[in-house]
Amino acid sequence: MGAVARFERVSIHSHIRGLGIRDGVPQPVGDGFVGQIEARKAAWIVVQMIKRGKMAGRGVLLAGPPGTGKTALAIAIARELGEDTPFVALSGSEIYSAELKKTEVLMQAMRRAIGVRIHEFRRILEGVVKKLNVKLGPHPYNPYQQIPIEGTITLATKDEERTLRVSGDFVAELLSRGVTEGDVVWIDLETYRVYRVGRAKGYGTFDLYGEKLVEVPSGPLEKEREFVHTVTLHDLDVMHSRSGSLLSIIFGFAEQREISPEVRKRVDETVKAWVDEGRAELLPGVLFIDDVHMLDIEAFSFLSRAMESELAPILILASNRGITKIRGTDIESPHGIPQDLLDRLLIIKTRPYTPEEIREILKIRAREEGVDLDPDALELLVKIGSSESLRYAAQLLTPAKIIAELRGLSRVDAAAVEEAAKLFVSMKESMAYLRELEEAFLK
User: Could you tell me if 74 and 316 are in contact, meaning their C-beta atoms sit under 8 angstroms apart?
Assistant: First the structure.
């Protein structure tokens, strides 16, 4: 049998694990981050403010030239806040391309950026399947097809064993979950849903496909167990708004639709009650809006008001613009943002990377993308990153690897980088080409 290729996609920020701060001190290289010492220190302080509940009514603006790590900083802030912290990224132009109102797009993005961790106690049967007998019978509409009509299942722990007679529907549920003898399962006694935990140790297990091995449970079969699952406020909004919608119940359509303020109010009241009862906890996430200068005066007004809401995510804006007009007005303002909103933002500036920092970033990206670089190839990429842009240099890594492989090389050399740079021109070279052949292009 041939090897099965695993789906793999390496994103441009997949190497970012956090802010790279140790005991409040930014490391020169840490958690995938290089340089931007002041910006990372400022972002770390923002994380501490968020954890202490001191960011209400405020937002963050990341301001700097293109390719200086603004998106990476926003992702790192979310990673520092915890694994379950929702992170929603939105481009300022997206609010105009949706079928919904601009303010509805922003509101849904904000609600997706707020998580609710729900704790639920359920009565379950937990044990290893020692024996599973299935009785088959003809399908009611197709006598030539056999389906489960009933069965027996023997569950056991280290201390108890019980044989249960079960219906054909329950047997079908077991089979659909891939449950076989020797598996440890949980059975919800309220819904009779089955969850396969893994393969019990000592039950003739073959670890050919990386099977998860678990201990045989101890104690009684029937017990109470806490289930924890995380949803977003938007998930709850959609669930409540679709109650009574026959199409969504039968077919589960994910139609895009506006959600009424009344539905959101009911959801908020329900969530607050859960929090007060100790059944849930809120996880304020991050709403990151890139190219914020693309928002118009109506959207900025909405964000200013929404920041003051009780249930609001951490708002992080990013801009690579200088003094420019606020969209929808003739007023010029820094970054194209109204000054009354700017006044309420903690502004973090990012700066261009030095050649030494570019070298370290390219090393990290090369490792992430599985590219083995010769020292000469690395230095050429550093030179390209300094004269053209860091993004362009990083984009040449994989093309150069493919070119080197075509020449039978296992490592990327300078010649492969040079060829890649000839085939894929930089933004500056593209602009020069346009000026050179301006008359030949269509107007």
Answer: yes
DSSP assignment of 261-272: HHHHHHHHHHHH
pLDDT of residue 433: 81
Does residue 76 contact residue 19 with C-beta atoms inside 8 Å?
Answer: yes
Mean pLDDT of 390-414: 91
What three-state secondary structure class fits 113?
coil
The pLDDT value recorded for residue 14 is: 60
The one-letter amino acid at 405: E
CA contacts within 13 A on the Cβ side of 227: 12
Nearest CA-CA partner of 337 in 348, 327, 351, 346: 327
**Tell me: domain 21-113+285-349, CATH 3.40.50.150, correct?**
no
Phi first, then psi: what are they for 53, rounded to 5°?
70, 30
Q: Supply the pLDDT for residue 3.
A: 41
pLDDT digits (tens, 9 = 90+) for 9-48: 445 566 677 788 888 888 777 777 778 888 888 988 888 8
Q: Locate the domains of the chain by residue range.
A: 21-113+285-349, 117-276, 355-436
Residues in the chain: 443
What are the tokens at 319?
A: 């801009």
Please name which of 156, 269, 139 lies closest in space to residue 220, comparing C-alpha atoms. 156
3-class DSSP assignment, residue 221 = coil
Q: How far apart are CA 70 and CA 350, in angstroms?
A: 7
Greatest pairwise CA separation for the chain in angstroms: 86
Look up residue 364 and give its amino acid: I
For the structural domain made of 117-276, what CATH number should be given?
Answer: 2.40.50.360
Measure the CA–CA gap between 313 and 292, rounded to whole angstroms.
Answer: 17
Task: Give the C-alpha separation, 47 to 322, whole Å.
Answer: 26
Residue 4 CA, chain-centre distance (Å), reads: 26
Determine the pLDDT at residue 248. 40
- Measured on CA atoms in the order 79, 82, 83, 86, is the torsion positive or negative? negative
pLDDT tens readout for residues 122-174: 888 888 888 888 888 887 777 777 888 888 889 888 888 889 888 888 888 88
Q: Are 91 and 291 in contact (CB under 8 A)?
A: yes
Please tell me what DSSP assigns to residue 354: P
Question: E strands of 33-182, at which residues?
Answer: 33-34, 59-63, 87-91, 114-139, 142-156, 161-167
User: What six digits make up the tokens of 315?
Assistant: 């708002």
Query: What's 355-436's CATH class?
Result: mainly alpha
